Amino acid sequence: MSSSDLRIPRLGYGAANVGNLFRELGDDEAWAVLDAAWESGIRYFDTAPHYGLGLSERRLGAFLQTKPRDEYVLSTKAGRLLRPDPDHDGGLDTANDFHVPADLQRVWDFSEAGIRDSLDESRERLGIERIDLVYLHDPERHDLDLALAEALPALERLRGEGEVASIGIGSMVSDALAAAVRAADLDLVMVAGRYTLLEQPAAVDVLPACRETETGIVAASVFNSGLLASSVPRRDGRYEYGQLPDELWDRLVRVAAVCDDHGVPLPAAAIQFPLQADEVRSVVVGGSRPAQLQQNAEYAALEIPDALWENLAAEGLIPASARLD
């Protein structure tokens, strides 16, 4: 592992929603969401060029410029450059779930020049020179081999030059995450939806790889597309990009029942579960309404009895190694 001493807060805000993910937010609405996160004590903010074709970075940067720079940790991502779309017909970027004009296009670029351009352009959109952490974003969606051969070494060099304090990879695919951890000297990996209260495929390969290399984990998408966001599960909930499989629905019902037996709100357990693993440094949650941010911060601080984790492990719903000692 690198010698980076970046201390990342245990709860972060993932700023895709202020990039108009799923629905349009006005500037004032987006500011209110970010203000609620800050007032709730959140001091880690994650964004990406992908989120709203740069809108998330611009809004988050404008907000954070009003805060002392040493009081928060900021991460963004690299791998997709934003370039003008000559075929823009006035439509929105709803194919990617963002309600913004699709006048820009995402261009994959894992070359060293592309990674450096991505960082410089993110700094410009954010209006903040110091970005603490840069993740390579979804490399398996483009070319994982090229990512391992070119993009991650480029990030290592940027860290060595002091351009960023820490580097990593963000992905929803366990195989890609584990491969990157073993191939490069990473500080952190963002595991999206693969180590949650509902399912833990990353426990098989990603967590062991991180343990061996002393690489930290940031757990994202911990509500599994909203399935764990309320204490009463809904059968018509979405899973990833489709319908919820029967097997996972049955598992969700069992998890919710154990939480109910212990008087613990399901979302609170969902936020705190990943942090039971020593490798997990932080949990990042989203939200498009101020009340959601306030509630998530309360859930993160709620005292949860050890017996809950013990019961979940005894029923085979979480790995036994995730229990508290």
Tell me what the structure shows.
With 325 residues, the protein is α/β, with parallel strands linked by helices. It has one domain (11-317): NADP-dependent oxidoreductase domain (TIM Barrel, Alpha-Beta Barrel). 37% of the residues lie in helices and 17% in strands. The chain has an eight-stranded parallel beta barrel with strand order 1-2-3-6-7-8-9-12, surrounded by five helices. The chain has a two-stranded antiparallel sheet with strand order 4-5. Strands 10-11 form a two-stranded antiparallel sheet. Helix 4 links the parallel strand 6 and strand 7. Helix 4 (144-160) crosses helix 5. The longest helix is centred in the middle third of the chain and has 17 residues, at 144-160. It is globular, with a radius of gyration of 19 Å. The mean pLDDT is 95.
Label this structure with key terms.
globular, 12 strands, eight-stranded parallel β-barrel, alpha/beta, 325 residues, TIM Barrel, single chain, 37% helix, 10 helices
